[in-house]
Write a structure and sequence with these properties.
334 residues, mainly alpha
């Protein structure tokens, strides 16, 4: 009888301890939504921010859509360089659309909340498209290097099949690679507070809100960023170094000017993309103040996509001619 009572007592304690573990696990994941602080200011300033960023977002959509349409409708631009540029413009539209509409809505909202699932979806798509942009810049650098350094072999190497494969690779690679960090960070326990001092669901503030400090997850996330940014940036630098050497050896001044003009626009976009990214995620003093983090993120998430269509269209004669032709055709139709 005594043995039965002891066994029952042990069973009771085992069940109760499991119930306590379950309840504690539920409380550690009790956060159902987050609050995006954005840019705290007066209601008038919020309206001013809304107006400014609405204009920037509209210009980004119009500029990148115009380039994508020009590549689609003008047969002269059906070459690997412009096909890649058209896809890059579509990528820019997707990239800004992951964050800017929510930021604009929060300027007019008092709650500024975002659900747990929506927050991590924004985090995943924003950084996946960001990775894709880096891969596309690398592919575009490879294409220019091949065209200028090996002009006679270029048509045989850069076939339609290879170009299609590079386009698919550029769109899919970021989504595959960044799946691991976003799953790991989403599995961290979040038990409050739920206020993110940012205008988007950035991984660093999210990891700071976790109840437990997971060094492994932080290390994996940091390693992914370092390998991606440094690897693609070095690849682009090496590609354009070879291009510059090839251009210097050219005898025709017209060919030199055309090659330098094309590469200058690419390098300007590379600088705008990688400059803030290196400052934010790679530099030794990357633990910037919160205000500085917001400004840097704002630069590469809003300002750079506005500038890219201007850089590519103003410094490229074929693109300017195609855009003028499209606008004239549309005007004639109307």
């Amino acid at each position: 009888m005594l043995h039965f009572i002891l066994c029952f007592s042990d069973l009771y304690h085992l069940v109760s301890s499991r119930q306590m573990n379950v309840s504690s696990r539920e409380t550690t994941n009790s956060v159902s939504h987050f609050i995006l602080m954005g840019f705290p200011s007066s209601p008038k300033m919020q309206l001013l921010y809304f107006g400014l960023f609405s204009v920037a977002y509209t210009l980004t959509l119009m500029g990148n859509a115009a380039i994508a349409c020009a590549v689609r409708w003008d047969r002269r631009l059906h070459t690997p360089m412009y096909i890649l540029l058209g896809n890059f413009s579509l990528l820019e539209i997707c990239y800004v659309t992951t964050t800017v509409p929510k930021m604009l809505a929060n300027f007019l909202s008092t709650s500024k909340s975002i659900s747990f699932v929506s927050c991590f979806a924004q985090f995943y798509f924003f950084f996946s498209f960001g990775y894709d942009e880096g891969f596309y810049l690398s592919i575009m650098a490879f294409d220019r290097c091949l065209a200028i350094c090996r002009p006679l072999h270029y048509p045989r190497i850069m076939t339609r099949q290879l170009c299609t494969g590079l386009v698919i690779f550029g769109w899919s690679c970021g989504f595959i690679i960044f799946l691991t960090p976003v799953v790991l960070i989403s599995k961290l326990p979040y038990c409050g507070p739920n206020v993110i001092n940012h205008f988007l669901c950035d991984p660093v503030p999210l990891m700071m809100l976790s109840c437990s400090e997971d060094i492994t997850t932080q290390l994996i996330y940091s390693t992914f960023n370092h390998i991606f940014i440094i690897g693609t940036f070095l690849f682009i630098l090496c590609s354009y170094a070879l291009v510059i050497l090839a251009v210097v050896r050219m005898t025709s001044e017209a060919s030199k000017r055309k090659a330098f003009s094309t590469c200058a626009s690419h390098l300007a976009v590379v600088t705008l993309f990688y400059g803030p990214s290196i400052m934010m995620y790679v530099s030794p003093g990357s633990g910037h103040p919160v205000k500085m983090q917001k400004i840097i993120t704002l630069f590469y998430s809003v300002v750079t996509p506005v500038c890219n269509p201007l850089i590519y269209s103003l410094r490229n004669k074929e693109m300017k001619d195609a855009l003028v032709k499209i606008f004239k055709t549309r005007k004639g139709v109307h």
